[in-house]
């Protein structure tokens, strides 16, 4: 079995899997540093001095690396040691690895000091306008070098990503998990809901609406067994209406808004903060429908026993303190 160790279109040699395993188990950063020093100084003696090792140790390290790769990497000439085609490619990757490791060390230092690093958070859509955005603005003002990734999805799917270590924290609901005791949950706020239609659908929005008045409408809903879907089913049941069979199911806010603006007799249930944001931009209208079910709550969810970075802890503090309010 053969694999390409340098995955680029112009790679020039292939190594058997056995060689790759050997590299992974025996390759040392000192050998890569030696290649870089040899490329810069063209002399084994000078490279050894730069690395504070003996010339014999440098020669041995180079021989071990060439044996692992089964290829000579340098040519001896009057100008000194000159890398051949193999050597140039290995040196190229040695520099890349050295640069990446240097950056890693800087990142670790910054994270320990609470100055930088990367933060990956998940958030349900209803938490984004009034809670996530102000908190992130405040965090960036304090820590401008932090890189932030935001995932907007259902709580259930985001908890899976939290379990896998792909998210540092989730602003959502831990109760949707089959094992909510695996998480720490800090309540942030309630999530009131509103019934919405496309902005062009103006006629219905100026008079009082009851849920039963929407019996003929098609609903854009969240997927089955999600809290928003279950609440809609409960509201329709309280109004004596069966859940329509011709619903459109999506977890995407963008898809919901697009459908409402293009379709006729389409309605949906959205978190009020989201609905008001789109209403201000004349993309949705909020119908005056009074919801009979109590509002659900959401909060900050983290893995029980996990150690959070200083920036994650600071974001949670900003969320709890209602940054920007």
Automatic annotation (TrEMBL):
Protein name according to UniProt: LysR family transcriptional regulator
Cellular component annotations (GO), alphabetically ordered: cytosol
Protein's organism: Caballeronia telluris
The keyword Transcription belongs to this UniProt entry's keyword annotation: yes
PANTHER family named among the record's database cross-references: HTH-TYPE TRANSCRIPTIONAL REGULATOR YBHD, NITROGEN ASSIMILATION TRANSCRIPTIONAL ACTIVATOR-RELATED
GO molecular function: DNA binding; DNA-binding transcription factor activity
Family label: Belongs to the LysR transcriptional regulatory family.
Domain of life: Bacteria
One Pfam short name: HTH_1
PROSITE patterns found in the cross-reference section: HTH_LYSR (PS50931)
Ranges for domain HTH lysR-type: 27-84
Keywords linked to the UniProt accession: DNA-binding, Transcription, Transcription regulation
């Amino acid at each position: 079995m053969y694999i390409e160790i340098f995955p680029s279109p112009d790679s020039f040699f292939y190594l058997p899997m056995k060689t790759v395993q050997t590299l992974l188990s025996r390759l040392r950063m000192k050998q890569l540093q030696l290649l870089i020093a040899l490329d810069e100084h063209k002399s084994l003696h000078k490279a050894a001095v730069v690395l504070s090792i003996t010339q014999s140790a440098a020669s041995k390290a180079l021989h071990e690396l060439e044996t692992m790769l089964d290829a000579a990497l340098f040519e001896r000439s009057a100008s000194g040691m000159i890398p051949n085609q193999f050597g140039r490619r290995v040196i190229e990757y040695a520099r890349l690895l050295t640069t990446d490791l240097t950056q890693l060390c800087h990142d670790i230092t910054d994270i320990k000091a609470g100055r930088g690093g990367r933060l990956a958070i998940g958030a349900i859509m209803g938490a984004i306008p009034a809670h996530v955005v102000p908190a992130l603005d405040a965090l960036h003002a304090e820590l401008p070098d932090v890189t932030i990734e935001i995932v907007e999805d259902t709580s259930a799917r985001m908890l899976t990503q939290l379990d896998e270590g792909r998210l540092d924290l989730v602003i959502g609901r831990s109760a949707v998990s089959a094992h909510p005791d695996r998480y720490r949950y800090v309540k942030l706020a309630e999530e009131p809901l509103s019934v919405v239609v496309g902005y062009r659908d103006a006629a219905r929005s100026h008079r009082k609406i009851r849920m039963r008045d929407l019996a003929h409408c098609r609903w854009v809903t969240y997927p089955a067994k999600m809290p928003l879907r279950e609440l809609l089913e409960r509201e329709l049941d309280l109004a004596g209406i069966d859940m329509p069979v011709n619903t459109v199911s999506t977890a995407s806010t963008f898809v919901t808004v697009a459908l409402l603006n293009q379709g006729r007799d389409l309605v949906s249930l959205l978190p009020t903060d989201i609905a008001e944001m789109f209403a201000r931009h004349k993309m949705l209208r909020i119908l005056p429908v009074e919801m009979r079910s109590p509002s659900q709550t959401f909060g900050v969810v983290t893995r029980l026993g996990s150690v959070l970075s200083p920036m994650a802890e600071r974001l949670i503090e900003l969320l709890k303190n209602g940054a920007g309010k």
